[in-house]
């Protein structure tokens, strides 16, 4: 220095050597979820493998199953879920318990040119450049295998294809297609797609390695390569850089390192990135990916405080209203220059076919795939794509619309609903010309009309009363004759103190009425040894569908306030026990038919829940008639009604589905205690799924 004083004296000089023996083979492993004091040095390593080009490593390490911290029952359960009960060589866990775990690597950084491993020995610093820096994290691929096993078991239980009513003909038509030449633009899209990248990564074979412990002799031998092997005069160690160049090498200028985006689909945005887009682009991106969404869910995904009126303007540009829910428009999914990835059909034809499916869902809840294919005449793969975008398959019921009807939106925005209705009328006119059909072609025949799949209890009661009035005149004479016959049959006297034999009359039942089980103690002769009350006779004008029996209604009301959900057979069983507990001579409850009992249930603030039982279900007709308490005067009734609505389309659901639906309906005010109470009152758990009480044998 010019002043002659050295404020930064040199304390020691260390020679630095560049070791190249492991320059292309040295990796640094990091374990970010493990404290540095808990190393894996003493853990048994079972296997190791690597994909060098991708720098992907997998390690299998043994678990100490004898440790007091190891839960043996949980380990056995995991092994059972993954491998089942079979004894095969390909099983993940050969010991029938989770006795190992797998670690999979991800790259901490792609540029390792500024990183090296250093070893200090005898005043010499030896540096070896790193080939890669990998973070090892536990892999949960065994959960994927367990989930796959579960789906296979479910598929086996469901028994065949979801649309069994659309059985394929024995003679199948073969469609021959010739692939058109791939354009450069299409090729670029294909090689940038997530599927293509995943396929390329899977093509690189694994290279299996041998693991050697820290104190192994082979490890000690390899560590010697961390030292520079040739330090003789032949090695050029002279510094040929100027001071400024050397300083720039030691402290390079700060450059913004490009963020490495994770491998994923090109159309995926994070919520933070999404909210930086204009509102119209946000709505279009969400609808293009989700395809079917209620308006409330859409508002929840946008930035809090977004004006709902502005969102309504945007959503109508990219989606159409179907059953109160928004479905993305066909021309948004299939732009003019695109074509079908399956068949090469141009976008214009695809849009017409998909518009037909959407239009049909504005009128019905379920569609048959064959019906759709016979009209739009597109390849089966395209038809299935249309249906999968907006519906789910149901056994023996075709394809059902994905979401329940959002009546709340229609009530809140009648102007939007009316505008959408007019748009659908215009689309219907175009479709009728293109596909040469009329709306009347889809109306059910008069002689084959059936009741709707979802009918409330009040509607069923009203229909039963109308049928009874229509048939009253023609059946009057026959009823009078049967009353006279019944009166003559009951003139006999019963000996005192003796139990009277049960006499069951076979009487004509009204439409849909089912006879009660003769073992249920609901008799047409006498109850507890006394004649039945005349006003309870179903053929004297006060039976099913007419004036209720007060004591029967009191019993039903108290029963459902205690149990909340019951099937018809269980109601009959409990009523049977109630009759048996009555004192001798009690005659308020007389002859009761199924229809009388069902009408009393529906009058008692209850409704029938049309649970879609699976085809292979062994439940009887009475067990499949499920009723639930709809109104009890409490605020919790609304929670119960939402639960019943969920079970109108699913016979079993997961807890998180119920929690999400309740949160959508009532906001964050729904607590865990509310969900627990609801499930405890109305459901039973079996195999991790929740069922309505009475629909399964718990």
Automatic annotation (TrEMBL):
Residues 145-156, 457-483 have a biased composition (Basic and acidic residues). One of its GO terms (cellular component) is RNA polymerase III complex. Residues 145-185, 448-501 are annotated as: Disordered. One of its GO terms (biological process) is tRNA transcription by RNA polymerase III. InterPro entries: RNA_pol_III_Rpc5 (IPR006886), RPC5_C (IPR045576). Keywords: DNA-directed RNA polymerase, Transcription. The keyword Transmembrane does not apply. The gene is polr3e. It comes from the Eukaryota. This is DNA-directed RNA polymerase III subunit RPC5. Residues 444-698 form the DNA-directed RNA polymerase III subunit RPC5 C-terminal domain.
């Amino acid at each position: 220095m010019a002043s002659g004083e050295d404020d930064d004296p040199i304390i020691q000089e260390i020679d630095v050597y560049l070791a190249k023996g492991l320059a292309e083979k040295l990796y640094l492993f990091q374990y970010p979820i493990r404290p540095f004091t808990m190393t894996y040095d003493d853990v048994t390593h079972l296997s190791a493998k690597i994909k060098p080009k991708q720098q992907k490593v997998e390690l299998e390490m043994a678990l100490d199953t004898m440790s007091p911290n190891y839960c043996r029952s949980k380990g056995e359960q995991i092994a059972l879920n993954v491998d089942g009960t079979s004894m095969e060589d390909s099983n993940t866990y050969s010991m029938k318990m989770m006795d190992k775990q797998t670690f999979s690597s991800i790259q901490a950084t792609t540029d390792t040119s500024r990183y090296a491993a250093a070893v200090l020995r005898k005043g010499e610093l030896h540096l070896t450049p790193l080939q890669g820096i990998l973070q090892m994290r536990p892999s949960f691929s065994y959960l994927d295998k367990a989930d796959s096993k579960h789906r296979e078991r479910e598929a086996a239980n469901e028994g065949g294809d979801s649309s069994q009513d659309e059985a394929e003909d024995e003679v199948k038509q073969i469609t021959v297609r010739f692939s058109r030449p791939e354009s450069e633009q299409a090729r670029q899209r294909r090689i940038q797609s997530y599927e293509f990248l995943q396929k390329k990564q899977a093509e690189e074979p694994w290279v299996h390695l041998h693991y050697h412990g820290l104190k192994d002799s082979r490890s000690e031998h390899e560590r010697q390569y961390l030292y520079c092997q040739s330090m003789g005069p032949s090695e050029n160690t002279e510094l040929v850089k100027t001071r400024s160049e050397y300083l720039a090498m030691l402290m390079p200028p700060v450059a913004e390192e490009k963020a490495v985006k994770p491998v994923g689909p090109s159309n995926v945005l994070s919520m933070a990135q999404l909210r930086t887009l204009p509102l119209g682009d946000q709505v279009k991106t969400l609808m293009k990916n989700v395809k079917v969404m209620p308006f409330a869910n859409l508002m929840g995904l946008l930035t809090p405080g977004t004006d709902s009126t502005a969102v309504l303007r945007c959503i109508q540009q990219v989606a159409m209203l179907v059953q109160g829910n928004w479905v993305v428009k066909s021309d948004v999914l299939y732009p003019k220059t695109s074509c079908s990835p399956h068949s090469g059909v141009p976008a214009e034809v695809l849009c017409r076919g998909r518009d037909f499916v959407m239009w049909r869902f504005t009128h019905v809840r379920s569609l048959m795939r064959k019906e759709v294919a016979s009209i739009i005449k597109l390849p089966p793969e395209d038809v299935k794509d249309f249906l999968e975008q907006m519906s789910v398959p149901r056994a023996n019921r075709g394809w059902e619309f994905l979401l329940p009807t959002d009546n709340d939106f229609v009530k809140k925005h009648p102007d939007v609903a009316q505008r959408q209705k007019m748009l659908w009328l215009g689309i219907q006119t175009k479709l009728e010309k293109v596909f040469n059909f009329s709306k009347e072609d889809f109306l059910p025949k008069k002689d084959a009309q059936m009741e709707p799949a979802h009918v409330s209890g009040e509607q069923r009661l009203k229909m039963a009363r109308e049928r009874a009035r229509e048939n009253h005149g023609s059946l009057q004479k026959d009823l009078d004759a049967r009353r006279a016959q019944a009166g003559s049959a009951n003139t006999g006297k019963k000996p005192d103190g003796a139990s009277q034999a049960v006499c069951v009359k076979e009487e004509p039942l009204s439409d849909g009425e089912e006879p009660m089980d003769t073992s249920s103690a609901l008799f047409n002769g006498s109850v507890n040894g006394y004649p039945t009350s005349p006003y309870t006779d179903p053929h004297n004008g006060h039976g099913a569908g007419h004036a209720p029996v007060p004591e029967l209604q009191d019993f039903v009301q108290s029963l459902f306030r205690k149990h909340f959900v019951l099937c018809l057979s269980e109601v009959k069983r409990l009523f049977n026990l109630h009759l048996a507990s009555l004192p001798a001579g009690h005659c308020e409850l007389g002859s009761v038919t199924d229809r009388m009992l069902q009408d009393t249930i529906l009058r008692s603030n209850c409704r029938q829940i049309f649970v879609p039982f699976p085809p292979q279900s062994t439940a009887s007709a009475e067990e499949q008639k499920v009723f639930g308490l709809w109104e009890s005067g409490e605020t919790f009734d609304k929670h119960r009604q939402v639960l019943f609505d969920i079970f109108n389309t699913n016979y079993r659901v997961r807890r998180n589905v119920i929690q999400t639906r309740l949160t959508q309906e009532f906001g964050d005010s729904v607590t865990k205690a509310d969900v627990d109470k609801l499930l405890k009152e109305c459901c039973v758990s079996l195999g991790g799924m929740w069922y309505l009480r009475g629909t399964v044998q718990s």
